[in-house]
Design brief:
Layout: E1 4-13, E2 16-26, E3 31-35, H1 42-50, E4 57-62, E5 65-69, E6 72-73, E7 81-84, H2 96-101, H3 106-109, H4 112-121, H5 138-150, E8 156-160, H6 168-184, E9 189-193, H7 196-202, E10 205-210, E11 213-218, H8 220-225, H9 230-236, E12 240-247, E13 250-253, E14 256-259, E15 267-273, E16 278-281, E17 287-296, E18 300-307, E19 313-319, E20 329-334, E21 339-342, H10 345-349
Parallel strand pairs: 3-9, 3-10, 7-8, 8-9
Antiparallel strand pairs: 1-2, 1-4, 4-5, 5-6, 10-11, 12-13, 12-15, 13-14, 15-21, 16-20, 17-18, 17-20, 18-19
Bound molecules: adenosine-5'-triphosphate.
EC number: 7.6.2.9
Enzyme class: translocase
Pfam families: ABC_tran, TOBE_2
Length: about 350
Amino acid sequence: MTGLTIRGLTKNFGAVAALAGVDLDVPARSLTAILGPSGCGKTTLLRLVAGFTTPDAGTIRFGDRLVSEPHTAVPPQRRRIGYVPQEGALFPHLRVADNITFALPRAARRSRDRLAELLDLVELDASTADRYPHELSGGQQQRVALARALAPDPSIVLLDEPFSSLDANLRLSTGRTVAQALHAAGATAILVTHDQDEALSLADQVAVMRAGHLVQVGPPGTVYATPADPAVARFVGDAVLLPAVITGRTARCALGTVTVRDGSADGRAQVLIRPEQIEILDGGPGVPATVGAVTYFGHDATVTMTLQPDGPDITARVTGTRTPHPGSSVHLTVNGPATAFPALASTASS
Ligand SMILES: Nc1ncnc2c1ncn2[C@@H]1O[C@H](COP(=O)(O)OP(=O)(O)OP(=O)(O)O)[C@@H](O)[C@H]1O
């Protein structure tokens, strides 16, 4: 498999700038998630890589091979793309085996070895080969769709919100199986999603898209811990954002004196603290607060508290076995460093 290099990719639909100069490198044999809200340009990017449409400006290379620029475009069928759409991609009148081997040359279609290898790769039992799509669960159907996409050994695999029709549990387990199968096959893949949990848990690299721009590209842990700006911070997870004053490696804010990451500039700022960084203590050091709402999710819980004496409200995340009682008095401390952003205009001048 080859890597993918995108430079200055631009696509307008009338007055709408669907893509406004996108640069992206997808290393060979890795999975990149394009994460962004509805209408930000994710599908347009995928369609350009597939060759279903041509760019107004910019280039797309598969390895060293230029496949797309405004006046030259390799047609989709000659790009060796594997494509996994949202749902309903399987031929309902063909058995699983025939769906998977559909795009293979006739001789290869008869080989049960390749079929067995592909079923094994997507963790489907060999007995599913003779079933029809309607005899499979939604998650199994999506794994068949991936096996079909991988069958001809494509250069790049494109996955367009492939888990969005599955319920939460199935989404997670199918996502994991699909990511493992892509790694095992050594595939270079792009996964389009608006689901941050999916992007963070499955991808090697997350590319956050907003209004036709990629605003941050990096490993999941980096994007979560050090988002490019407050909007990315909120998009990839729950965020506590507080006005602060930074001096050296510490910031003073409503949650007391907290450590900030290296390189944060002195002066007024906004700090990002993730809810799981906030520790709730019965007493002792820390900022006093009164517990308000507790929302229990089983594995964990969120606790909204009002800092004393006069706010603001802060939401922390704790394990489901350690939830405080609403109305109780607690003290809060912050574990690990906060990430600093420039101060909001109103706090900068105050
Ligand atoms: N063929 C088209 N004609 C006109 N406008 C289009 C066309 N395709 C996309 N757009 C517009 O371009 C922008 C980006 O659309 P795109 O489908 O790429 O977004 P998206 O991030 O994939 O959204 P979603 O998650 O809802 O699928 C949107 O404003 C959309 O309305």
